[in-house]
Amino acid sequence: MRYLMGIDEGTTGCKACLFDENGLLVNSASREYPSYYPKPGWVEQDIEQIKECVFASCKEAIEKSCVNPNDIIGISHSNQGITMVLLDENEQPVREKTIGWQDLRYVDILPELQAKVNENEYWEISGMMYGTYNIPVLNWIQENEPKVWAKVKHICSHQDYFLRQYGADGYFIDEGCANFMSMARMEDNEWDERLMKAYNVDSSMLPIIIHEPGKVVGYVTEEASQKTGLPIGCSVCLGGLDTNCCSMGAGAKDAGTQVLIMGTAGVSILITDKSKMDPNKRITVRSNPGFGNWQSYIMTNTGASSFRWFRDELCSMEVATGKLMGVDPYDIITSIAHNSSPGANGVTALTCFQGSHTRKKNEKARGTFFGINLGTTKADIAEAILEGICFEMKDILNMNEELSGEVKNIRLCGGVAKSPLWCQMFADILQRPVELTEVSELGSLGAAMCAGIGSGIFKDCVNAIDKCVHVSKIYTPDEINEKIYAESYDRWNKFYAIANNDIYI
What we know:
Strand order of the largest sheet: 3-2-1-5-12-11
Shape: globular
CATH superfamily of the largest domain: ATPase, nucleotide binding domain
CATH class of the largest domain: Alpha Beta
């Protein structure tokens, strides 16, 4: 039996998953790591800290599996959004911490960028809006940390950084990550001179864009083998953006498939046959690598990370109980939410803790609660947060369908998919059946499928999906809860309108 390692390196933690050649999960290991918030709206991470967690998780997963490491023939990597790693001529980070993709310090310099390439031109070239993701932090560094910028020789996504750590021959990036860097043309996914100029970036600083999912870009070195447990000579294969890997792991190959990815961010990907640009510039249209069709893409900036905030700041007892009992504290907290009722007893949560990037786009939006009274319980607040996250995704799904056409089936993935309560809530709020696949760690599976393509186990992306992806459960809407949530959704929309006009200014 041959095996594949898929690494899902997310914003809040990493998962290393070992799969067999049929896509069955053999074993896994994970680590969490922190983000740092030095100023309001700023988000930073320590790449060395993340690297230690990734390598340790990889080694642990292999050791726990009892698989002969020499039977592992390929590794690939799924990476978080587009948090960039800036490297000097010796390929060492130039900043003590990387600036996270959620960071908002760039907002004040957007007018300077728009003077170089106006918003409409930028949209037509890249399919992106200025500030959709945090690439303008490059300009912020140039203005505020010129000595740091002077040292920059390589600009990497986390994926190409880690592929290089394993043994890649250089810095290589997939179409999805290149798209998120906001310097690539939508039409052919190649770097665009005019967009690079807007960010004062030379093409020599950027990784090489690879259009072939799973392409072998190097082999595991002796040094990397010692740190990860992977065998020397194991194929290092191009992976992808976390959302692309999740989409592939969910089996999103045909038009009409809607993937909802609930991790740190909340992401909606609708597969379409044609690229249709949003006249309101809210929805990104980009290629679906390996399938010849398109993704209609939109995301929230916080998603389930608002629930992590609730866990970390208000649920210390539940976290401690989870450690004592060997239970995931999220399971305890969601069970607390179950003690409330649909509608959260009148409490409404706007979960845009780090700005809103949806139909209600506003970088100044923040988490806000309405309807709290002296009878409000922790269960009500937990329920309201869960509902608020679902409401935002419902809004996104409606937008995607309005622009791109009929949604034929919905596949839910991310940490949310592990919670039956939350899965049922999604079905009730969306008023549609919600599908789960056999493997819950879809980011890791998508990365492993890329490794399987590169190492010759799978012929192509379609073949990988046919062999590895199977629907295991379908949640159908509850008619009574549907009506309650529909009223709560109307209330959520009204409160956001009030906050957007009078508070988020």
